[in-house]
Write a structure and sequence with these properties.
It is a single chain. The protein is of the alpha/beta class. It folds into two domains: 2-160 and 347-380, Medium-chain alcohol dehydrogenases, catalytic domain (Quinone Oxidoreductase, Chain A, domain 1); 167-315, NAD(P)-binding Rossmann-like Domain (Rossmann fold, 3-Layer(aba) Sandwich), CATH 3.40.50.720. It contains eleven helices and 19 strands. It has helices spanning 38-44, 110-113, 155-158, 161-176, 203-215, 229-237, 250-257, 273-278, 304-308, 331-341, 361-366, and strands at residues 2-8, 11-16, 26-35, 71-79, 91-94, 97-98, 124-125, 138-142, 146-148, 181-182, 191-192, 195-199, 221-225, 241-243, 263-268, 283-291, 313-315, 351-355, 376-380. Strands 3, 4, 5, 8, 9, 18 and 19 form a seven-stranded mixed beta sheet that branches. Strands 14-13-12-15-16-17 form a six-stranded parallel beta sheet, with helices on both faces. The chain has a two-stranded antiparallel sheet with strand order 1-2. Helix 9 links the parallel strand 16 and strand 17. Helix 4 (161-176) packs across helix 5 and helix 4 (161-176) crosses helix 10. The protein starts with a strand and ends with a strand.
Length: 381
């Protein structure tokens, strides 16, 4: 089969590679769409390498090239002899995370047993930790990692189940963690937050705006800081007030809009070190800070000192896995796909670039994501 293979930092080649033969519990998925994630760009640029050996050391791409792509939709091409609930021709989205349920391991590890499968003792991920990802014609996965699409959704839209699943997982942690301020009455915590600020209106920030407004029903002040005009417009359409940090100081706007109170909840969705350094001036004492973005390079750890003095509740959720349905499939993916299929969360409006084949993957990584109007790209295979 053909695949776009990352053979070195900044270099992707279209190659013929072998497709893994399915076992009795596996399905072969013909990939139809793959979302481009910031994690993909970080790995491509050499800023991250999550393919590690047993001692936790990164394995160079020169030794083990990678097939990226973890936001995956496709069609079942073949099913193993023990698979009874999926059939060739059915459309699915893929949970890229391999865990105890994926391996039919018994007993489950302590993390999978408590609904924290994203921290499975043997966790690995297609397209991130070395397992082949979606920038290929086919992908072989355990059948329990495939969630059936009930509608005739555009595969490019269905592929965004994974990033929405990450928000679903994070929101579950946020609403069940005791803190001084809660998002709504009945949530873990005490007083309801009057102001939430989201740093960044990329795909993650925009999904957060929608999830807060339409799923969790948050009706307080919701501010989003974002320099990109197209993204600010989407955030406003989804129910937020926006701040252009290139035109005005977000700290000053925050102070004025909250009459000096500042935000009780901050969601950091940029991965920017400079933004991280500004957090202490944006939040109230004992606020909750959800560290959703990754990276934060170029900042001295001393920026943590003013944050620690505020005694915040710091949350650091990762990934879209987290618990299982009765049939062993990932509960967060099922929830996220349902929100998309019912139209409660609009992911289609985030897609600004469609790349028409595996041949276009190189161009997608080499510059299309830097276009002024770019929000989210999807490779349609």
């Amino acid at each position: 089969m053909k695949a776009a293979v990352l053979v070195d930092v900044g270099r992707i080649e279209l190659r013929d590679v072998a497709c893994e033969e399915p076992g009795p519990r596996d399905v072969v998925v013909r990939v139809t769409a793959v979302g481009l994630c910031g994690t993909d760009f970080h790995i491509f640029a050499g800023h991250a390498n999550y393919n590690r050996d047993e001692r936790g050391r990164p394995i160079p791409l020169a030794r083990q090239p990678q097939i990226l792509g973890h936001e995956i939709a496709g069609v079942v091409e073949a099913a193993g002899t023990a698979v009874r609930d999926l059939h060739p021709g059915e459309q699915v989205v893929v949970d890229q995370g391999r865990n105890c349920m994926s391996a039919a391991r018994s007993p489950l590890c302590e993390y999978c047993a408590t609904g924290d499968s994203h921290q499975c003792e043997w966790y690995s991920e297609h397209g991130i930790t070395g397992l082949p990802g979606g920038f290929a014609e086919y992908l072989t996965i355990p059948a329990v990692n495939a969630v059936r699409i009930a509608s005739d959704r555009d595969p490019a839209v269905a592929a965004l189940t994974e990033p929405l699943g990450c928000v679903v997982h994070s929101a579950q942690l946020l609403t069940r963690t005791p803190a001084r301020y809660a998002l709504r009455n009945g949530s873990a915590g005490g007083e309801v937050a009057r102001c939430v600020v989201i740093c960044g209106a990329g795909p993650a920030g925009l999904l957060w705006v929608q999830y807060l407004r339409t799923v969790l029903g948050y009706d307080g002040l919701l501010l989003v800081t974002e320099p990109h005009a197209t993204k600010r417009a989407l955030a406003e359409r989804f129910g937020a007030e926006t701040i252009d940090p290139t035109a005005t100081d977000p700290v000053e706007v925050m102070y004025e809009r909250t009459r000096g109170r500042r935000a009780e909840l901050l969601i950091e969705a940029t991965g920017s070190g400079a933004v991280f350094a500004a957090i202490p001036r944006l939040v109230r004492k004992q606020a909750t800070i959800l560290l959703y973005g990754h990276g934060h390079t170029g900042v001295d750890l001393s920026v943590l000192s003013p944050l620690q003095f505020l005694e915040p509740t710091l949350l650091a959720p990762v990934g879209a896995s987290g618990g299982f349905a009765d049939d062993g499939r990932p509960a967060t993916y099922i929830r996220a796909l349902d929100l998309i299929e019912r139209g409660q969360v609009d992911v289609q409006s985030l897609i600004t670039h469609r790349h028409p084949s595996l041949d276009s993957v190189v161009r997608a990584f080499m510059g299309d994501h830097r276009a002024p109007e770019y929000v989210k790209g999807v490779v349609v295979v």
